[in-house]
Design brief:
Blueprint (H helix, E strand, L loop, with lengths): L4 E2 L2 E2 L11 H9 L3 H6 L16 E5 L10 H8 L8 E6 L6 H5 L9 E6 L7 E3 L7 H4 L2 E6 L1 E3 L13 E5 L2 E2 L2 H9 L6 E6 L7 E5 L5 E6 L10 E5 L5 E5 L4 E4 L8 E5 L8 H4 L5 E6 L1 H5 L12 E6 L5 H8 L7 E5 L22 H5 L3 E7 L3 H13 L5 E6 L12 E2 L2 E2 L11 H8 L4 H6 L16 E5 L8 H14 L5 E7 L7 E2 L5 H6 E13 L7 H5 L11 E9 L2 H9 L6 E9 L13 E4 L6 E5 L4 E4 L8 E5 L17 E7 L3 H7 L6 E7 L4 H9 L6 E7 L11 H11 L13 H5 L3 E7 L3 H13 L5 E6 L4 H13 L8 E6 L31 H8 L4 H6 L16 E5 L10 H8 L8 E6 L6 H5 L9 E6 L7 E3 L6 H5 L2 E6 L1 E3 L13 E5 L2 E2 L2 H9 L6 E6 L4 E8 L5 E6 ...
Parallel strand pairs: 3-4, 4-5, 5-7, 6-8, 7-9, 8-10, 9-11, 11-13, 12-14, 13-15, 14-16, 15-17, 17-18, 18-19, 19-20, 20-21, 21-22, 25-26, 26-28, 27-28, 28-29, 29-30, 31-33, 32-34, 34-35, 35-36, 36-37, 37-38, 38-39, 39-40, 41-42, 42-43, 43-45, 44-46, 45-47, 46-48, 47-49, 49-51, 50-52, 51-53, ...
Antiparallel strand pairs: 1-2, 23-24, 60-65, 61-62, 63-64
Length: 1289
């Protein structure tokens, strides 16, 4: 691409990345290292301060520093320059003692989060003492220290008044007092994570944090050594506790009444008071020893405990478990597991005698039992049998067997005398998911599922896709299989049968369509018939069809018909089948025959098939014999693929006048015929030429394809070996193969497609002859927009292949971005070995569930692409999926989709909506009348909803009422509300208020009375954007619109007729900035001025809106439809001083004096666009000629820079006005005039000829037609012609 020149100046391309907003630039800089981000300040003034506003920085010592500065000094110098730093991450790779001196003092006071990570392996520890009470510590919210750090804050005056999260990972302390002093410096700490180091000896830590709510304590790695620390903990407000440390001693000095959840894995011998502080939890995960259970007393009851996960590390004793349950009276969920399961049958069992009273939790509360690593010992069987016998409210019991406890044969596990029954989870899936599962099975097996239960009895009858394959039923005879198809189709109940496929065997009995049920013909959409030996309509002879005039069956809804290897009983049956499909859109035929042996019917060699398809858009014909005749043109044909013998191609050239995609096989001497018939809209051409080609012949073809973007060529130089030809026609075409190509003159200019459009070029079977080299060289030298050129070199010797590839790479290319890719046309040489299935010993490779490992954000995006009911059903897959659907931020409830189970749509919405926890956007699409929106929907929506859309799309006359009866929480947070369709609002007595609503759309919504509209707007105190599409109703009525906060107002009326509809709207919006009104029947009375109005687009009846221009006097951009009567009423007291851009549509006959009189009211106008909705071109009309005034309008003399005239008709008034403007507009830079088609006369532009005599105020030179053409003036009508005048010095 060469630099384009305008005059003598080159076009400079702008720096687009610098025009991006700061937020996007900061995101780009955050992806680069700090040193790279800082270096961007040298690019320009735009970039000088951008890097200083980065909210997050990562200083990594492993990256090279800048210049001669060390890493510590570089951080100390650069950190003070950042002005908006919120998050700082320091990654140090070696020992340093300058954190207190260089880093902390140089950080600004607005830092919120800081992470320091020291990752090195030698034994020195980096000291941090926090010596000075620096400002940065006062605003810090999160502090994370990790690695080889030693803290010494005994004498430090540091204080973290805002710190809420503290992580100490493998951090050491100078002494025990440093730990205590650090925690006391955090008065509002809420979250503490402590991973302690393994040290030898005994030491005592004191942890007193009254504000702490979450505490995590874990130990470094695995080995424990002789490390026995003691921690005294005082956290009265703790809510969550997790400890994993079996060596430490933990002494809780105070009770924790607010503790809700605990996960504890400690040595219970060293932590005697642990259970006392856990008595208030609701969820407990603990590892218990038998000795701990035996030491329990009755004075400690866990009344609030609902969920217990218990891991018994030693030998299981059933009496210990049962004695434990009496201390948890309200337990609902029990999970048991063993870390080291035993299966020794010779152990001494402690047999359980049933206690006198059953534990309270078993009798009244326990609902879930889960037992992991069940070994089947006597104690375990006794305990399981006791629980299952006495748990009256148990809903689910899941028992996972251990491998050493399983018998040689898999059988039902017996607990005492009872069998364990597993719940049928698959039956709980929604109908749509079960139907999709059934569609993967053969139809006979899908029907057998009806015997499972009542739930499955009628599911297969609702399958929208049915596929009958005779091979899948080997026990049936051919006649029995056809009868099976007929009977099963009679039982089908789905309202729509999307696809019906019947595949028989060639030796099968005939298939008679009339024997199928009548319902199939009414609801079938796509019919696929494979391997049908005899296909007929009924048992009657085919001639009866012509006597009756009507087919015996009719496929009323059929849109797709696929026939593969189908034989008809008679040729007339084929015509009957096509005529029985009035809505047919998609047809596929492959090997369609008649019953006569060795006679091909589509089409037989001795017959002709006439085709009449005027609406055809896609056509593909491959490997046929005989002749096809298209009786009608196909103006809608877009794509055509003709893979037939080149001797038949000439019959199809007539129908290719409108194609955009074409793949065709031709003889070289028929390329000229293709060039004459080819479409000017052709974008993609795949051409296979039989015989010798020439450069001029191909260029002649490209000349008639001006918009071609993709060109694929292939030359067939040799005919395949076969039996000798005897047909005279085929022998004649064989002679054409060896004929030389027709002579064509060398083109005088480069084809337009090469210069401007061709992007992809591909050549197969390139041999490297002189003619082929000339073609390739010409295309590469002239295709300026070419991006990819792929050439498959054909040769039998490697040396010649290399030489040809070398020649291709050395050819010059006009496009600098073109990628030339040469290939060898023998892919078998480079074919890779096939991948075999991997085998690991004798086991098969199993693939994990990867989709469940994706992050929540990606899973939510996947669920947002499926219906709500399908997203809800994923909660049954696994625990991972159970809460995911509840976090979806956007939901679309569509009533046209079937509901779940027996619930109606309204009740389904009312039940499922409260379960969503993060709903932000809700879209309701109702398909019928509903009166439960106020009672079922609104009360069940969470209070965090921001955007709500309700669309009622039905056609009968009932309107769905909405009253907003209660002032619900959902209305308090709503930001966007859109109501559309047959809704009637009645909010006269409603206490509703939308305190946060800023955007309101009312599309074709009705109101119970005029006061409802006023009451609704008054309940939106911060409304900024209002869109109102009003319904056209008969009569007169008055609406009052008073919204002080409104900034954007769009009003339009329902399309089509207006009738006697004459509404009146009184509008009071003093803060309005944008106004758009399209309503030529309404009366709009603006009660106040709108001084902030910037842009207006108005199309109204000016005779009904007299004060409209007064309120528009402050606009800068105005689009208006003016009548001559309105222009005559303008007075000198109304001047549009701020108007810069005016788009004017004159609906009646144009008068130049009216336009020029109008311009004096716009003194600062810079851009003028004129349009004529109904242009006149009657030369006999009475023109109002313009006499040049004494003073030129101010906007013409000093400000007007651009004029655009659409629908220029060349009348006398228009010529006078255009001449006056061009003569007096001294600042005019661009004048664009779009001519109307009525201005065209015998191929010449009348309007341009009449521009003789125009003069430019800038050049003060006469402009005639020849000069306009010499200055690259473009001329265009409404279909694409334009005149552009550009003033040059």
């Amino acid at each position: 691409m060469k630099a384009a020149r305008l005059g003598s100046e080159e076009v400079m391309y702008p720096d687009r990345i610098s025009n991006l907003p700061n937020d996007l630039l900061l995101r780009i800089l955050s992806l680069a290292p700090v040193r790279t981000a800082m270096s961007t300040s040298l690019l320009s003034k735009r970039w000088k301060y951008v890097w200083k506003m980065m909210p997050r920085l990562v200083y990594d010592e492993t990256c090279p520093y800048i210049g001669p500065l060390g890493f510590d000094l570089f951080c100390g110098v650069s950190l003070p320059l950042h002005e908006a730093l919120k998050t700082l991450n320091l990654k140090l790779g070696k020992y340093t003692d300058s954190i207190d001196t260089l880093l902390f003092p140089n950080i600004r006071s607005n830092l919120l989060k800081m992470t320091i990570n020291l990752n090195y392996f030698y034994s020195y520890y980096t000291p941090i003492t926090f010596p000075n009470n620096i400002n940065v510590f006062k605003t810090l919210l999160v502090l994370k220290l990790k690695g080889r750090i030693v803290l010494d804050v005994v004498d430090s005056p540091v204080c973290f008044p805002s710190l809420k999260i503290l992580h100490l990972i493998c951090v050491n302390f100078q002494c025990e007092e440093s730990f205590t002093r650090l925690l006391s410096a955090c008065p509002v700490l809420e979250d503490l994570f402590l991973q302690r180091l393994s040290s030898r000896g005994r030491f005592l830590f004191s942890m007193s944090v009254p504000s702490l709510q979450r505490l995590y304590i874990t130990k470094e790695c695995a080995t424990y050594g002789s490390d026995e620390p003691r921690l005294e903990i005082s956290t009265p407000c703790l809510k969550y506790l997790k400890i994993f440390d079996r060596r430490g001693h933990y002494n809780f000095l105070e009770d924790m009444p607010k503790l809700v959840e605990a996960d504890v894995s400690v040595d219970v011998y060293k932590n005697e008071k642990l259970l006392r502080v856990l008595s208030s939890v609701e969820h407990l995960v603990i590892c218990l020893y038998p000795s701990m259970v035996l030491d329990r007393t009755d004075n400690l009851i866990f009344n609030r405990l609902l969920h217990l996960e218990l891991d018994v590390c030693n030998i299981f004793r059933s009496n210990l478990l049962l004695s434990l349950l009496k201390y948890f009276p309200n337990l609902k969920s029990l999970k048991l597991g063993r870390t080291y399961p035993k299966d020794s049958e010779d152990q001494l069992y402690c047999l359980v005698s049933e206690p006198s009273s059953v534990p309270n939790c078993l009798s009244f509360h326990l609902e879930i039992l889960q037992w992991r690593v069940y070994g089947g010992t006597l104690d375990e069987r006794e305990a399981a049998a006791y629980i299952l016998k006495n748990a009256h409210h148990l809903k689910t019991a899941r028992i996972s067997l251990h491998t050493t406890g399983m018998d040689n044969e898999m059988s039902a596990v017996k607990l005492g005398t009872e069998d364990v029954t597993f719940s049928d989870m698959i039956s709980n899936l929604p109908d749509d998911l079960l139907i999709r599962i059934l569609s993967l099975l053969p139809i006979s097996e899908a029907m057998n599922t009806s015997l499972l239960s009542k739930r499955w009895e009628s599911l297969w009858k609702m399958m929208p896709v049915l596929k009958y394959v005779e091979k899948s039923c080997p026990t049936m005879t051919s006649q029995g299989f056809v009868e099976f198809c007929r009977r099963s189709l009679q039982l089908h109940e789905a309202p729509v049968l999307k696809t019906l496929t019947i595949k028989l065997q060639l030796q099968s009995v005939p298939l008679i369509l009339s024997s199928l049920p009548e319902t199939v013909f009414q609801k079938l959409v796509v019919l696929k018939l494979h391997m049908i030996r005899y296909l007929a309509f009924d048992d009657s002879p085919p001639r009866r069809y012509f006597s009756d005039g009507k087919p015996s069956v009719c496929f009323r809804s059929l849109k797709g018909l696929h026939l593969r290897s189908v034989s008809f009983s008679d040729e007339q049956y084929f015509c009957r089948l096509i005529s029985a499909c009035p809505l047919l859109e998609d047809v596929f035929f492959d090997t369609v025959r008649t019953c006569a042996p060795k006679t091909i019917f589509l089409p037989p060699p001795q017959k002709i098939l006439e085709i009449s398809t005027p609406c055809l858009k896609y056509l593909k014909i491959k490997n046929i014999t005989g002749r096809l005749i298209f009786t009608k043109d196909m103006p809608n044909l877009v794509a055509a693929t003709l893979e037939v013998d080149p001797s038949q191609t000439s019959d199809f050239l007539r129908i290719l006048t409108s194609v955009e995609f074409l793949s065709i096989h031709l003889y070289a001497n028929e390329v000229l015929l293709l060039a004459d018939k080819i479409s000017q809209r052709l974008l993609h051409l795949e051409l296979c030429i039989y015989g010798k080609n020439s450069r001029n012949l191909l260029l002649h073809l490209l000349k008639y394809s001006p918009k071609l973007r993709v060109l694929k060529l292939q030359e067939i130089h040799e005919l395949l070996m076969g039996p000798p030809l005897t047909d005279p026609c085929q022998l004649a075409y064989l002679e054409k193969f060896d004929d030389p190509p027709p002579s064509v003159c060398n083109p005088s200019s480069v084809p337009e497609c090469l210069s401007f459009h061709l992007q992809t070029f591909k050549w197969r079977c390139y041999r490297g002859t002189m003619e082929e080299k000339e073609v390739v060289r010409y295309i590469l030298q002239n295709a300026r927009c070419l991006k990819t050129a792929t050439i498959y070199v054909s040769s039998c010797r490697k040396k010649k292949e290399r030489l040809k590839i070398k020649e291709l790479k050395s050819m010059p290319k006009a496009s600098t971005s073109c990628l030339l890719v040469p290939y060898l046309s023998f892919p078998l040489r480079f074919r890779s070995q096939t991948m075999k299935a991997a085998r690991l010993g004798s086991e098969e490779v199993t693939y994990p569930d990867r989709i469940s490992q994706l992050p929540d954000d990606l899973l939510l995006r996947i669920l947002s692409l499926v219906p709500v009911r399908t997203a809800m059903s994923t909660s049954l897959l696994s625990k991972r999926w159970k809460p995911v659907w509840k976090m979806m931020p956007m939901l679309v409830y569509d009533e046209t989709c079937p509901y779940i189970g027996s619930l109606g749509f309204d009740l389904f919405c009312g039940v499922s909506l409260p379960l969503h926890e993060a709903l932000k956007t809700l879209n309701l699409k109702l398909g019928k009348y509903s009166d439960s929106i106020d009672t079922l929907l609104f009360p069940n929506i969470g209070s965090n909803l921001l955007d709500m859309t309700i669309n009622l799309n039905y056609y009968y006359g009932y309107y769905t009422p909405i009253k907003f009866p209660n002032n619900l929480n959902v209305f308090k947070t709503l930001f966007v509300l859109k109501l559309q369709g047959k809704i009637v609002l009645d909010v006269v007595d409603s206490p509703v208020c939308f305190p946060s609503l800023k955007i309101l759309h009312l599309t074709c919504v009705n109101f119970q009375c005029e006061e409802s509209f006023t009451r609704l707007l008054s309940s939106c105190p911060v409304l900024e954007d209002l869109f109102l599409q009003r319904l056209c109703s008969g009569g007169r009525f008055l609406f009052n619109m008073s919204v002080p906060s409104l900034q954007r107002l769009s009003i339009t009326s329902e399309p089509a007729y207006y009738g006697s509809d004459e509404p009146r709207l009184e509008i009071s919006t003093p803060c309005l900035k944008y106004l758009k009104i399209f309503d030529r029947c309404g009366y709009y009375n603006f009660l106040e001025d709108m001084p902030k109005l910037v842009e207006a687009d108005v199309s109204v009846d000016m005779s009904k809106n007299e004060n409209l221009l007064r309120v528009l006097s402050s606009v800068e951009h105005l689009v208006i439809c003016l009548y001559p009567s309105m222009v005559l009423d303008l007075t000198d007291s109304l001047i549009f001083n701020r108007l810069l851009h005016l788009e004017l549509d004159v609906c009646n006959s144009f008068r130049s004096n009216l336009l020029l009189r109008l311009l004096k009211y716009f003194p600062n106008l810079q851009s003028l666009k004129l349009g004529c909705t109904y242009p006149k071109d009657t030369e006999g009309q009475l023109y109002c000629l313009v006499s040049e005034q004494g003073s030129v309008p101010k906007c013409l003399s000093f400000h007007l820079e651009s004029i655009q005239w659409t629908g220029y008709g060349g009348t006398l008034d228009e010529r006078e006005a255009a001449a006056y403007i061009l003569k007096n507009a001294h600042r005019l830079k661009t004048a664009t005039i779009r001519l109307h088609t009525t201005c065209m006369e015998n191929g010449y532009l009348v309007g341009v000829r009449n521009l003789n005599g125009f003069s430019s105020g800038l050049a003060q030179a006469k402009v005639d037609l020849s000069k306009l053409l010499a200055n690259n003036v473009e001329m265009e009508t409404y279909e694409g012609n334009v005149i552009t005048l550009e003033a040059t010095s």
